[in-house]
Amino acid sequence: MADKKQLPGHIAIIMDGNGRWAKSRKLPRVSGHAMGAKRVTEIVQAASDLGVKALSLYAFSTENWSRPQQEISALMKLLVFYLQRQVKKLTKNKIRFVASGNIAGLPETARQVILNTIEKTENNRGMIFNLCVNYGGRQEIVDACRRIAEQVVTGQKQIGDIDEAVVTGSLYYPELAEVDLLIRTSGEERISNFLLWQIAYAELYFSPVFWPDFTKIDLLAAIADYQERERRFGGI
Fold first, then answer.
1. Residue 157 burial by CB count (10 A; 0-12/13-18/19+): exposed, middle or buried?
2. Which end of the chain lies in a sparser environment, N or C, as judged by fewer CB atoms within 10 Å?
3. Is-catalytic flag, 134?
4. Candidates 64, 102, 116, 193; catalytic one
5. In order of start, what are the domains of the chain with their CATH numbers?
6. pLDDT in tens, 55-103
7. Catalytic residue (one of 16, 130, 134, 180)
Protein backbone atom coordinates (compact mmCIF):
# COMPACT_ATOMS: atom_id res chain seq x y z
CA MET A 1 0.00 0.00 0.00
CA ALA A 2 1.31 3.43 -0.91
CA ASP A 3 2.57 5.63 1.93
CA LYS A 4 1.21 9.18 1.64
CA LYS A 5 4.23 10.47 3.55
CA GLN A 6 6.66 9.33 0.84
CA LEU A 7 4.87 10.30 -2.33
CA PRO A 8 6.70 11.09 -5.56
CA GLY A 9 6.43 14.85 -6.00
CA HIS A 10 6.03 14.73 -9.78
CA ILE A 11 4.43 11.77 -11.55
CA ALA A 12 4.45 11.54 -15.35
CA ILE A 13 2.35 9.04 -17.28
CA ILE A 14 2.57 7.86 -20.88
CA MET A 15 -1.08 6.94 -21.45
CA ASP A 16 -0.73 4.03 -23.87
CA GLY A 17 -3.06 1.32 -25.10
CA ASN A 18 -6.31 3.07 -26.05
CA GLY A 19 -6.32 1.59 -29.54
CA ARG A 20 -5.48 -1.93 -28.43
CA TRP A 21 -8.09 -1.71 -25.68
CA ALA A 22 -10.71 -0.88 -28.30
CA LYS A 23 -9.47 -3.54 -30.73
CA SER A 24 -9.65 -6.23 -28.05
CA ARG A 25 -13.34 -5.35 -27.66
CA LYS A 26 -13.98 -5.04 -31.40
CA LEU A 27 -14.70 -1.32 -30.98
CA PRO A 28 -13.48 1.62 -33.10
CA ARG A 29 -10.26 3.26 -31.90
CA VAL A 30 -12.13 6.43 -30.95
CA SER A 31 -14.02 4.41 -28.32
CA GLY A 32 -10.68 3.61 -26.70
CA HIS A 33 -9.73 7.27 -26.69
CA ALA A 34 -13.11 8.23 -25.19
CA MET A 35 -12.67 5.69 -22.38
CA GLY A 36 -9.10 6.91 -21.94
CA ALA A 37 -10.38 10.46 -21.43
CA LYS A 38 -12.68 9.22 -18.66
CA ARG A 39 -9.70 7.55 -17.05
CA VAL A 40 -7.83 10.86 -17.07
CA THR A 41 -10.56 12.31 -14.85
CA GLU A 42 -10.16 9.52 -12.30
CA ILE A 43 -6.38 9.58 -12.20
CA VAL A 44 -6.12 13.38 -11.96
CA GLN A 45 -8.56 13.31 -9.04
CA ALA A 46 -6.76 10.41 -7.35
CA ALA A 47 -3.34 12.06 -7.64
CA SER A 48 -4.72 15.33 -6.27
CA ASP A 49 -6.44 13.59 -3.36
CA LEU A 50 -3.22 11.76 -2.49
CA GLY A 51 -1.29 15.02 -2.32
CA VAL A 52 0.90 14.62 -5.41
CA LYS A 53 2.39 18.02 -6.28
CA ALA A 54 2.47 17.62 -10.08
CA LEU A 55 1.05 15.20 -12.63
CA SER A 56 2.12 15.23 -16.29
CA LEU A 57 0.10 13.25 -18.83
CA TYR A 58 1.27 12.56 -22.39
CA ALA A 59 -1.87 13.22 -24.43
CA PHE A 60 -0.67 13.92 -27.98
CA SER A 61 2.88 13.80 -29.30
CA THR A 62 4.44 15.65 -32.23
CA GLU A 63 4.66 12.26 -33.94
CA ASN A 64 0.92 11.61 -33.57
CA TRP A 65 0.16 13.91 -36.52
CA SER A 66 1.05 10.95 -38.75
CA ARG A 67 -2.11 9.13 -37.63
CA PRO A 68 -5.25 9.08 -39.82
CA GLN A 69 -6.94 12.48 -40.00
CA GLN A 70 -10.21 11.07 -38.70
CA GLU A 71 -8.50 9.85 -35.54
CA ILE A 72 -6.68 13.17 -35.05
CA SER A 73 -9.96 15.08 -35.38
CA ALA A 74 -11.61 12.79 -32.84
CA LEU A 75 -8.74 13.30 -30.39
CA MET A 76 -8.97 17.08 -30.69
CA LYS A 77 -12.73 17.00 -30.14
CA LEU A 78 -12.23 14.81 -27.06
CA LEU A 79 -9.63 17.25 -25.75
CA VAL A 80 -12.04 20.17 -26.12
CA PHE A 81 -14.94 18.22 -24.62
CA TYR A 82 -12.85 17.05 -21.65
CA LEU A 83 -11.48 20.47 -20.72
CA GLN A 84 -14.82 22.24 -21.10
CA ARG A 85 -16.45 19.74 -18.76
CA GLN A 86 -13.61 19.55 -16.24
CA VAL A 87 -12.57 23.18 -15.72
CA LYS A 88 -15.02 23.76 -12.85
CA LYS A 89 -13.94 20.54 -11.17
CA LEU A 90 -10.29 21.49 -11.51
CA THR A 91 -10.98 24.81 -9.80
CA LYS A 92 -13.07 23.16 -7.08
CA ASN A 93 -10.10 20.92 -6.27
CA LYS A 94 -7.63 23.83 -6.54
CA ILE A 95 -5.82 22.07 -9.41
CA ARG A 96 -3.77 24.32 -11.68
CA PHE A 97 -3.88 23.31 -15.33
CA VAL A 98 -0.91 23.94 -17.62
CA ALA A 99 -0.05 22.57 -21.06
CA SER A 100 3.37 21.68 -22.46
CA GLY A 101 4.05 21.57 -26.17
CA ASN A 102 3.52 23.62 -29.31
CA ILE A 103 0.05 24.84 -28.43
CA ALA A 104 0.11 27.33 -31.31
CA GLY A 105 0.24 24.40 -33.72
CA LEU A 106 -3.10 22.97 -32.59
CA PRO A 107 -6.47 23.57 -34.27
CA GLU A 108 -7.94 26.92 -33.20
CA THR A 109 -10.76 25.55 -31.04
CA ALA A 110 -8.45 23.23 -29.12
CA ARG A 111 -5.88 25.98 -28.69
CA GLN A 112 -8.44 28.45 -27.32
CA VAL A 113 -9.94 25.93 -24.89
CA ILE A 114 -6.47 25.07 -23.56
CA LEU A 115 -5.57 28.74 -23.10
CA ASN A 116 -8.92 29.46 -21.42
CA THR A 117 -8.44 26.54 -19.01
CA ILE A 118 -4.94 27.73 -18.17
CA GLU A 119 -6.28 31.22 -17.45
CA LYS A 120 -9.23 30.04 -15.36
CA THR A 121 -7.07 27.84 -13.13
CA GLU A 122 -3.89 29.95 -12.91
CA ASN A 123 -4.60 31.07 -9.34
CA ASN A 124 -5.22 27.56 -8.03
CA ARG A 125 -2.57 26.44 -5.57
CA GLY A 126 -3.11 22.70 -5.42
CA MET A 127 -1.63 20.06 -7.71
CA ILE A 128 -0.25 21.15 -11.08
CA PHE A 129 -1.85 19.15 -13.89
CA ASN A 130 0.44 19.35 -16.91
CA LEU A 131 -1.14 18.07 -20.11
CA CYS A 132 1.47 17.45 -22.81
CA VAL A 133 -0.16 18.19 -26.16
CA ASN A 134 1.63 18.43 -29.51
CA TYR A 135 4.64 17.71 -27.35
CA GLY A 136 8.06 16.21 -28.09
CA GLY A 137 10.91 15.96 -25.61
CA ARG A 138 13.58 16.69 -28.19
CA GLN A 139 11.62 19.67 -29.52
CA GLU A 140 11.33 21.08 -26.00
CA ILE A 141 15.12 20.95 -25.62
CA VAL A 142 15.61 22.49 -29.08
CA ASP A 143 13.20 25.31 -28.19
CA ALA A 144 15.07 25.86 -24.91
CA CYS A 145 18.36 26.11 -26.83
CA ARG A 146 16.85 28.67 -29.16
CA ARG A 147 15.67 30.81 -26.23
CA ILE A 148 19.12 30.68 -24.66
CA ALA A 149 20.81 31.46 -28.00
CA GLU A 150 18.60 34.54 -28.42
CA GLN A 151 19.61 35.72 -24.95
CA VAL A 152 23.29 35.29 -25.82
CA VAL A 153 22.87 37.18 -29.10
CA THR A 154 21.11 40.07 -27.33
CA GLY A 155 23.70 40.16 -24.56
CA GLN A 156 21.36 39.03 -21.79
CA LYS A 157 23.58 36.01 -21.17
CA GLN A 158 27.17 34.99 -21.81
CA ILE A 159 28.08 31.53 -23.09
CA GLY A 160 29.80 30.86 -19.78
CA ASP A 161 26.49 31.46 -17.97
CA ILE A 162 24.87 28.43 -19.56
CA ASP A 163 24.48 25.53 -17.15
CA GLU A 164 21.80 22.97 -16.25
CA ALA A 165 19.82 25.57 -14.30
CA VAL A 166 19.70 27.88 -17.33
CA VAL A 167 18.48 25.06 -19.58
CA THR A 168 15.87 24.02 -17.02
CA GLY A 169 14.71 27.62 -16.78
CA SER A 170 14.17 27.71 -20.53
CA LEU A 171 11.87 24.68 -20.71
CA TYR A 172 8.12 25.00 -21.35
CA TYR A 173 7.24 25.03 -17.63
CA PRO A 174 10.45 25.39 -15.62
CA GLU A 175 8.53 25.58 -12.33
CA LEU A 176 7.70 21.88 -12.68
CA ALA A 177 10.11 19.81 -10.61
CA GLU A 178 12.00 16.94 -12.20
CA VAL A 179 9.96 13.77 -12.62
CA ASP A 180 10.23 11.32 -9.73
CA LEU A 181 8.11 8.51 -11.17
CA LEU A 182 7.45 7.81 -14.86
CA ILE A 183 4.65 5.34 -15.59
CA ARG A 184 3.87 3.80 -18.97
CA THR A 185 0.77 1.70 -19.44
CA SER A 186 -0.05 -1.12 -21.90
CA GLY A 187 3.10 -3.20 -21.42
CA GLU A 188 5.32 -1.19 -23.74
CA GLU A 189 8.73 -0.30 -22.31
CA ARG A 190 9.79 2.86 -24.15
CA ILE A 191 10.18 6.53 -23.25
CA SER A 192 8.80 7.73 -26.60
CA ASN A 193 10.36 11.20 -26.55
CA PHE A 194 8.60 12.20 -23.32
CA LEU A 195 10.06 14.77 -20.90
CA LEU A 196 13.60 13.74 -21.80
CA TRP A 197 15.29 16.44 -19.72
CA GLN A 198 13.01 16.05 -16.71
CA ILE A 199 13.25 12.24 -16.35
CA ALA A 200 17.04 12.10 -15.97
CA TYR A 201 16.72 10.40 -12.56
CA ALA A 202 13.11 9.27 -12.66
CA GLU A 203 12.11 5.82 -11.49
CA LEU A 204 10.47 3.92 -14.37
CA TYR A 205 7.37 1.77 -13.91
CA PHE A 206 5.86 -0.22 -16.77
CA SER A 207 2.31 -1.47 -16.28
CA PRO A 208 0.77 -4.20 -18.47
CA VAL A 209 -2.65 -2.54 -18.09
CA PHE A 210 -4.11 -0.64 -21.05
CA TRP A 211 -4.73 3.01 -20.18
CA PRO A 212 -8.57 2.78 -20.29
CA ASP A 213 -8.34 0.08 -17.58
CA PHE A 214 -5.72 1.90 -15.45
CA THR A 215 -7.47 2.76 -12.18
CA LYS A 216 -6.58 4.42 -8.90
CA ILE A 217 -5.59 0.96 -7.63
CA ASP A 218 -3.01 0.66 -10.42
CA LEU A 219 -1.71 4.14 -9.63
CA LEU A 220 -1.31 3.20 -5.98
CA ALA A 221 0.53 0.02 -7.00
CA ALA A 222 2.98 2.07 -9.06
CA ILE A 223 3.56 4.47 -6.18
CA ALA A 224 4.04 1.58 -3.73
CA ASP A 225 6.63 0.06 -6.07
CA TYR A 226 8.39 3.43 -6.29
CA GLN A 227 8.50 3.70 -2.50
CA GLU A 228 10.32 0.37 -2.23
CA ARG A 229 13.23 1.61 -4.35
CA GLU A 230 16.40 3.25 -3.08
CA ARG A 231 17.08 6.40 -5.04
CA ARG A 232 20.83 7.20 -5.05
CA PHE A 233 21.03 9.80 -7.85
CA GLY A 234 24.44 8.50 -8.92
CA GLY A 235 25.74 8.12 -5.38
CA ILE A 236 26.36 5.01 -3.30
1. middle
2. C
3. no
4. 64
5. 7-136+179-227 (3.40.1180.10)
6. 999 999 999 999 999 999 999 999 999 999 999 999 999 999 999 999 9
7. 16
